Amino acid sequence: MNYIYLKIDDPDNGFTYYFEVDGDRVAYRQIELSENNGCRLSIAPDFHLSEVLIDYEEQDLIAREEFEQAWTAAVLPYQSAWEQTKREYGIGDAVTGGIAMFYPQGVIIQIGPGRYGAARREDLVPALLPEYLYPGHRADGIVLGYDEDNFWLVLGDVRVSEENIAIEWG
Predict the structure, then answer these.
(1) Could you tell me whether strands 15-21 and 2-8 are parallel, antiparallel, or unpaired per DSSP bridges?
(2) Its domain of life (predicted)?
(3) What is the pLDDT of residues 23-46, one digit of tens each?
(4) Contact yes or no for 118/106 (Cβ under 8 A)
(5) Cβ distance 100 to 113 under 8 Å?
């Protein structure tokens, strides 16, 4: 992974960005700091992640430690909710939710208000009909672990069905 710091000066609203990107310039984690709007993150509740490849210059690269320091500070307001989620959902627990979106890390599944899990696409149960891979379709899985960077559950043995489940944003 590469770590990027970009500052965009604008007289009306300056922006500072931190990105974690892979070798193909795909963003996996993102912080957007705005002089007017505060902080938006690639995790819940914002899910603000670039959908385009990240262009950067050599001088924009920063050390992983610098990115992690900024990330830790940015996600701090959500830490207690994440700790509560881990207490509510133990390893091996069955969960049900709805597909919320698709990220580079996989399929993001909302399992409750403010509670999310992620499953790699290749780990979805085979024989899945492609038309079920859309937001709102029911997804049942097992908690395999915790993603401490993104504050979501790691899910496995995920089965997606034609049933629709309402996604609650906010």
Answers:
(1) antiparallel
(2) Bacteria
(3) 999 999 999 998 777 899 999 888
(4) yes
(5) no
User: Could you read off the pLDDT of 66-81 as tens digits, one per residue?
Assistant: 999 999 999 999 999 9
Instruction: Give one DSSP letter per residue of 113-165, joined into a string.
Output: TTEEEEE-GGGBPSS--GGG-STTEEEEEEEEEEETTTTEEEEEEEEEEEEE-
Q: What residue type is 93 in one-letter code?
A: D
User: Which tokens is 146 given?
Assistant: 């915790």
Task: Give 18's DSSP letter.
Answer: E
Residue 137 Cα to chain centre, angstroms:
18
Q: Which residues partner with 40 through β-bridges?
A: 32
CA 51 vs. chain centroid, Å, equals 13
List domains and CATH numbers for the chain.
2-78 (no CATH), 89-164 (2.40.50.140)
